[in-house]
Amino acid sequence: MDLRNERLWMYNRVIPGRKGLTDEFKVGVDQFVNFACAQAEFVENGVIRCPCTKCRNQCYKNPKDVKVDLYKWGFESNYWHWTCHGEEVPFFTQSVNDVSHMGGEGNNMYETMVHDNFGMSSTPTHQNGDFEGPHESAQKFYELLDSARQPLWPGCTTDTELSFTLKMMSIKSSYNIAQKAMDEMLDACSRAMPLPNKVPSNFYQAEKLVSKLGLGHVKIDCCINGCMLYYKEDIELGQCKFCGEPRYKESTKHQSKVPRKRMHYLPLIPRLQRLYASPSSAKHMRWHAENHRDIGMMCHPSDGEAWKHFDKTYPEFASEPRNVRLGLCSDGFSPFGMSSKSYSCWPIIVTVYNLPPSMCMTTPYMFLSSIIPGKNNPKAQIDVYLQPLIDELKSLWETGVVTYDVSLKQNFVMKASLMWTISDFPAYGMLSGWQTAGKLSCPYCMESTQAFWLKNGGKHSWFDCHRQFLSMNHPFRKNKNDFLKGRVEKSYPPCLLCGEEVLERVSYIPKITEQPNLKMPGYGETHNWTKRSIFWDLPYWKDNLIRHNLDVMHIAKGDPP
């Protein structure tokens, strides 16, 4: 019988409709306590971990107190395998379809975090067949796992080395504590606690321990006017090569140089690799290929024409279902509220579409890639800040990166492609390079627009521009009363340009990273191009059917109450 079925009593504590505990729960608790007391840990220390919903295996208590807590609060959720009490289980015995139980085998939430971080098991397994071990990081994993298990001092029942360090780092971040003050606090804690203890000696040691979890960020200096990044071959420059503005703030003191403007970039590749390292997401990264839906039903982007067209165009990429499909979203906001001084900050968010609909647009799988600093709207210069992300996307497409899939226990070369962007209409112009303002603002009609100028209103109008998209026999085309008076619509809609045709049009236009203050001749009269978008640097961008999407929230009114 499946172990979970044998232990259903763990979550059948209270008699339905009346007070009191079920008999099977009482018997089961006795069995659990007897099992835990038979382990070497209890024999040596005389206490066991309490798995109630309050203690969550973080506290050590005597068996009688553990029974009382279990009677009062019940077992913590999904503790089917008593791994905190000496029970060994095979690697990944949980059902991958049980989303509520995924995430593992960790003895506490910090162990679980370490397991998800590295995608490795602390339980020895016999590997055979096609099973492989992770390609690296094994020693780092076991060192961090040991930190998650070792008590802060002998007999400590509340914290481990890792949990204490993470709490202290969180306090430093929340209250903006100086590094020197942090050193003093850690030193005071170390002196106040029993010896020997595992309190980090200073901030450097604490940061060194936490950094093993990975997912760092890169600080990149920017031109104060947004002309360029001090990045790659320009990293040593002291002033902007376009506007001449100095890179650093002026200072008369002998101190480290402080940049006038800086962006933070969070590398994408390690975060995609983490999806395959975590049991809670690795299996689901193949959902788009393994879960077939009825023809004609669309419940996921993989059901759409754009996705299928990309698969046909690049069959080698599509043949590996673990290759990642991405979308990019961006919008501006004021971090200080509407009442404060005007300040525009632009986050760049990358979302993963391999996952099922219930997961792919949720917060854990929407990755903040970078934050474009204000205070001004970057407008067309948004491409300057997208350079690190585009470089990573090019690398992921051309060479890929060796990644360990914990669900199949295999190493594979992971590649990725950016399917489209999502934004409101003004940001559409920033990302695509076709300015969405003025008479030629429509990126579909382009120079074939039928917009006209309102003399009294003092602005352009697109009234009655939509009838050309109707079928030729539609009655609205001959309606002379309800649209422009006396006008019959006989024209055909403008042809939609394919990716290669658009690329041909913009191929002669410089990128904004090459000429920041570019002014295109004929702008607003024969075209609305402001730049050649940086997305055209992606080799496959011309083959995407849908390159830029509009967020429905910004263009459709809600249903009436």
UniProtKB/TrEMBL annotation:
Protein name as catalogued: Transposase-associated domain-containing protein
Ranges of residues in domain Transposase-associated: 7-87
Source superkingdom: Eukaryota
Species classification: Eukaryota, Viridiplantae, Streptophyta, Embryophyta, Tracheophyta
InterPro entries for the chain: Transpos_assoc, Transposase_21
